[in-house]
Inverse folding.
């Protein structure tokens, strides 16, 4: 089955799941860090959900999707098209080469407005790896999940 990882930080969200469960116009990005499940900590901000994010995700496919996320330590402002101060437009989709796992990075509305978020691509990659370790590798259903709290509002 396909699955996805979703990340909703304060306002930024990251999801890992099968592509069929996610919809919307996303920027697709081509090209797992060196982390393993044993050296990744779990996060209280991570939610695994077979019903929402799919089951039987392939660890290798999700690791391949994580490899697409740049590992740069520079801070960037993430936001939607047209938002003042946005440096990187979201949503963004990182998809495995076999198409079985996607990682979506989106903003979530806070009240009536969307706000920009500041984070580093390396933090996004680390958050995706935590979801994979906790949800895909750490559960019997090998489910997808969502995480947040890896960015801050501008």
């Amino acid at each position: 089955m396909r699955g996805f990882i979703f990340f909703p930080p304060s306002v930024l969200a990251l999801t890992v799941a099968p592509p069929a469960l996610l919809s919307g116009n996303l920027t697709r990005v081509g090209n797992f860090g060196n982390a393993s499940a044993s050296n990744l900590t779990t996060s209280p901000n991570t939610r695994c959900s077979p019903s929402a994010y799919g089951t039987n995700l392939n660890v290798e496919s999700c690791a391949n999707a994580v490899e697409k996320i740049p590992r740069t330590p520079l801070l960037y402002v993430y936001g939607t098209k047209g938002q003042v101060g946005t440096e990187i437009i979201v949503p963004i989709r990182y998809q495995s080469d076999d198409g079985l796992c996607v990682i979506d990075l989106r903003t979530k509305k806070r009240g009536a407005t969307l706000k920009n978020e500041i984070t580093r691509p390396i933090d996004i990659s680390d958050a995706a790896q935590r979801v994979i370790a906790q949800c895909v590798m750490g559960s019997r259903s090998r489910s997808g999940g969502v995480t947040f709290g890896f960015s801050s509002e501008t």
In short: The radius of gyration is 14 Å.
